[in-house]
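Progress against Task 2.4 (sequence-to-structure conversion) is shown through the following example record, which the project officer requested during the mid-term review.
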Amino acid sequence: MPLPDPVFDTRTFRDLVAEATKRILVHTPEWTNQSDSDPGMTLLQLFAFIGESVIYRANRIPERNRIKFLRLLGVQLQPAAAAQGLVQFSLPTGPIQTRTLSAGDSLAAGQIPFKTTRGLDVLPIETGVFYKRRLVGVERATALESYRDLYASFELPPGNSDSLDLYETEVLEPPRAGVLSDALDVGGDTVDGIWIALFARRGDDVDDVRAELAGKTLSLGMMPDLDADSRVLPPLGVQDAEPVSGLVFEMPNVSAAGGVAAYRQLPASATSDPLVAPAQVEITLGEANQLRSWDALEPLEAGTGAYPPDLDADPRAERLITWVRVRLPDDAGNAGGRVRFRNSWIGINAAPIEQRVSVAAELLAQGTGEPDQTTRLANTPVLPESLTLFVNGTPWSQIDDLNAAPPEAAAALAQMAMDDEAATGVQASPLVFTLDPEAGEIRFGTGLNGARPPRGAIIQARYDHGGGTRGMVGIGEVKTGNLPSGVRVVNPVPTWGGVDGETVAEAERRIPQFIANRDRLVTLGDFETITQATPGVDVARVKILPTLTPEAPDLAAPGAVTIIVIPANDPRNPLAPEPDLLFLRAVCAHVAPRRLITTELHVRGPDYVDIWVSIAFDPITGRAAAPVREAVQAQIQDFFSPLIGGFDGTGCPFGRTVDPAEIFVRAAQVDGVARVDTLILGDTAGARAQPLELGPMQLPRLVGMSVVSEGDAVAIDALQGASPAPDPGAGGALTPVPVIPELC
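Structure tokens generated for the chain above:
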């Protein structure tokens, strides 16, 4: 919406007359005739009329001055952003027939509208997602006792039991509403990637389904883990500087010679990199005779080596069509270490959606031919990039500032340039307008700056409206839509990215900052205030580190700036909040257009260093020990909080040495503590005798604490617990072999 006009006085003529009449009895009680025929009342009404005119003019003058001032500044309310998501379609019943859906299909989560942004083939199949969970440590050692003799022929070299890579087949369960589930570390926790089994529906003939799938497009939806370390904005562009290794999508090649498990890579294209962003991956399936899997393996051969997981225990095994395996390429770790591949959800028949509604053609008020004509769209907030405006059938362009537009006389020159391809040096077209997305207000030029729509001109608009946090819905909320018969839809993951438009109060608070920094990142204060004002995310704390990069924090890097952001809340880590991928992307999108082109920005969360604290104290005589013990724990926990910690309560300082003496003082200040007997500080290496030095990007994270009021302080080793047993099979040549999971 536009900024409202300030009103200094709301009194009208009647209000002024009534107020003055009440004063008559106080100041001149002898004045008893207060009818309209009394000359004194006539004078009173005259002055009230003049007063109302003065109030009206006083209210109008600041309005004109303020609007002009804001236009010169270029301050506008930040528009709303539409929530995005992924949905999964299905055909649970009906004929064996693919349904093709186009982009723009309408869906809904209750009364909240959505629409698909890409089309897809809805395949009449079912799926199961599996992975081979590698056994390590004690679990692997125990299983080897049972499977060493059984799989002796698979050992490489013969007699080396460490060459068996034992695993259990696990189902990759989809996310559930209200449950914080961990993402699957595909590169570290699986043997060879994610396996997607394509099954025929119950009652359908498998060969008939293969014939229907031949040549079709499999739309795969992928949601990566949103935990992220850093986003990099190099100079002269907005992009991630980190290398991205594409995933491999492959299918069994049963007809390959040699009698071994061979695969053929499938052609695939994605809407974005599925390693770092939610994506729809389109995979082109082959001919019907290629959609198969091995079905004549020896009993002990199924699931071993490169073969798919064994499905003997799955009742859908007889309906298996084929497998699709998703994995990292073999050389993914050659440059820069192991590539990160963590996945939260993967499924077929998926398409991206946005919380928006399309208006195909809206007829607006006719042109008046007057300067500064304004008109309004019927639906708000408007998504600015979607608006297309036609005046008498000619498209006009959206512009940020009408003062930069050429006069309407240049329209003839622009038309001449269109007729003469060799013409050069012609000014930009004056057929432009500005848009206030929140109010849906369209403003045209004055004639001197931008053209005026001719009198009686027909003005039409095509646009999308929507956006805001109302589009942030949970799992399973998007489940209706204008879909063909038999097609069902659901969103398997929550939607993301919805941002409400900036409020008037927020915009007014931003004006002094805008005047100070002109919306440019130059000084440290500019970086902090602009980053703090990122719309759509709640940035609780910002730390700016100039001339520093996370890769080499000890070396000066002129032109580089590291921005460390801490969110106000993090359900997974409430005591040590960390920004996720979408949080960092929102910050990057906000700061990228405001930086100098020579500035290299690194946007990341804090580097937490795990610490443990053990305290033994004596309570004051007569005081209950339990409440004092709880108070000591809360005091130490708050002291290390990145949001309310430190001595000043603004958050534990970055790079500050963790000194046991300071912790000692905080514990001793708790009401009820007579004396602190022992305080032990520890890190991942165990108990420390010296303070812990931290780097400029590091914060302490209290992961373990013991407070006792009787006896000795608990040892740090006891707080940390036993370390996991090393994997005896790591580092050698491994042959994956399945084990039977224990069933209750």
